[in-house]
Amino acid sequence: MQIYLPIAEMPVDPFVVVMLGGAVGFLSGMFGVGGGFLMTPLLIFYGIPPAVAVGTEAAQIVGSSVSGATAHLRRKAVDFQMGWILVAGGAAGALTGVAIFRSLREAGQIEVFISLAYMIFLGLIGALMLAESLRKLLRSAEPGARKRRRRRTAWMAALPFAMRFRRSQLYISPLPPLVLGYFVGVLSAVMGVGGGFIMVPAMIYLLQMPTNVVVGTSLFQIMFVTAVTTVLHAAANYTVDIVLALLLLAGGVIGAQLGARIGVLLKAEQLRALLALIVLAVCVRLAFGLVLPPPAPYVVEAL
């Protein structure tokens, strides 16, 4: 059985799409990421046009993030004060990203840009996360190793408007998380990602937030920013396929709940190492796609 997608203008197997949504939703709940870094390339590999994959994936991330954030809310593992600042920056970034996306699409370069951007960002982030996770795992295995965490937040406290984030036990300026949210908002709109693969390590290593609130706060921010991105893509670029989004959501919501339960059973270093391996695997696949010759030398598209 197949279902026709009105915006993507192609038939798909609904069971395959639901399974893809469930797998990515599972990762969303486990790692605190929106899952778009994996789902957008998978949709493109499946044959969905890149512009539609980016716009529709933003809608799918909203549902999976809501489900994952709800699970963390029940455990009181969300810093709302930090989350709203990240949301404010992310919403502004989404406006900028949609404008960039529209310009690249009109120039006919959106597909190449998306592949190159994914390969660069996923390669860098995956390598850094894997190296850091392996170092921490090796240190924890050493006898007598201390688990004391050194915080270097003095430079952020010296910036204007410094304030106390009680849930994260930080005293810093809201400017660094505001800029971080803006950057992730741009990526969300241009690449069809929630930005969790950047947000999670940045919150841990840059903002020095405790690991136990990072995942829930990341999902809280992703939930709102991707909702704004979805509306902007639908209104400005007409690239949100609601049928495809609903199929992805059907699997994503269930997968996120299961992922949140499994994630609690693993240590933070183990989670980061596993996420790094997945990120690098997607990076390698995209690199092969750029190097291998295309199935057709050119395509004809009616404007």
Q: Would you kindly provide a written description of the structure presented here, covering whatever features stand out?
A:
This protein has 303 residues and is mostly helical. The chain has one domain. Helices cover 71% and strands 4% of the residues. The strands form two sheets. It has a two-stranded antiparallel sheet. A two-stranded antiparallel sheet has the order 3-4. α1 packs parallel to α10 and α4 runs parallel beside α9. The radius of gyration is 19 Å and the shape is globular. 50% of the residues are buried. The model has no long low-confidence stretch (mean pLDDT 77).
Q: C-alpha Rg, in Å?
A: 19 Å
Compute the number of structural domains: 1
Mean pLDDT across all amino acids: 77
The low-confidence parts are none
Report the strand count: 4
H/I helix tally: 11
Helical percent range?
over 70%
| Distance, first to last CA | 30 Å
Largest sheet: 2 strands, antiparallel
User: What global shape is seen?
Assistant: globular
Keywords for this entry:
mainly alpha, two-stranded antiparallel sheet, 11 helices
Brief digest:
The chain is mainly α and about 300 residues long.
Topology (elements, then pairings):
Blueprint: E1 3-5, E2 10-12, H1 14-31, H2 36-46, H3 50-74, H4 80-106, H5 110-141, H6 154-157, E3 163-165, E4 170-172, H7 175-191, H8 196-205, H9 211-236, H10 242-263, H11 268-291
Antiparallel strand pairs: 1-2, 3-4
Helix pairs in contact: 1-3, 1-10, 2-3, 3-9, 3-10, 4-7, 4-9, 5-11, 7-8, 7-9, 8-9
